[in-house]
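Researcher: Here's the sequence for the chain we discussed earlier.
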Amino acid sequence: MAKQKAIAIEYGDWEESYAKLSSWLTHMQNHSLGSYFQILHDDFIVGNRVSREHRQFHRVFWTFGQCKEAFKYCKPIIQVDGTHLYGKYRGTLLMATSQDGNGGVLPLAFAVVEGETLTAWSWFLAHLREHVTDKNGICLISDRHASIKSAVANEALGWQPPHGYHVYCVRHIASNFNRKFNNAKQKEMFKKLAYTPCKHVFDQNLEKFRQLSPAIARWIDRISKEKWSMAYDTSGRRYGHMTTNLSECVNKVLKDCRSIPITALVKSTYSRCRKYFIDPGRQAQRQLREGQVYCSKLVTELRKNQEQACSHIVRVYDIHSTRFEVEETFNPITQRGGQKWEIDALMWDHVTLAQ
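Model: Thanks. This is the structure I predict for it:
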């Protein structure tokens, strides 16, 4: 009680905060081009009658125009997650997050709802489709929460192929495995298996994992390999993202905001996104003035790959240049190298690597 009084002194009265929410979001929408919000209310019952003077808060969804615009130039992945609010009035904060080309976290949308229910997730994902992005081929990464799975399965929401492809967070699956089997070593085996890029090696190690016990075999067989393994991400839709780390980064940034009145919470998402809007934008403008064509992370990776490529020998296997042998020269100083790979260069932007 004392903590809530202190919070009220700092951020305003809890009840008044709900009353101020609409006006603040309207102000934000008017001054931030492309932003959108929706607030839902329920009837407020006094005795057996519906009050004409009061309404009861139900849900709110909001997204900032700058984030929506930035996502047009990002890889088509979205991570969604939910976290509990623990102030005077409880609820759940839902978040959708992506990543820009420089590796920066990009918050896309937020909602405060009654809990991680099917109707709440359906409402959030529908708004994400209608008011944030209409891109096709988006890879949607989440945990295996039953409400998310059911919401995504609803074709009317726009997250079924070819519009969206739903896959699971490996860390959440590993945690579920450990809760069920209580074996940290086997949990690490599963995580290593999930990150194995070579399909041939994956299939061999998956069979070894299944042979640990009939119960483990039944458990892993119930989850489609395409939903959790790098090896069966055959179209490269994950872009290497195997977890919901991006959403959890935003969650950590907002951790101290989850116990404050709702308008203060919404304001905090905006003020903390402002740093993302301004600082990287200034940095990008400076780099463009200096003649830099690509973002810093890409330039660093290209230089790194060029340096490593100097120690590789590539041999073409066929006239169509679709099969290659890559040999890494042996370095006597580091005692590394000397390996060979066969590479199939497919029509997609990624390659399948077979040792």
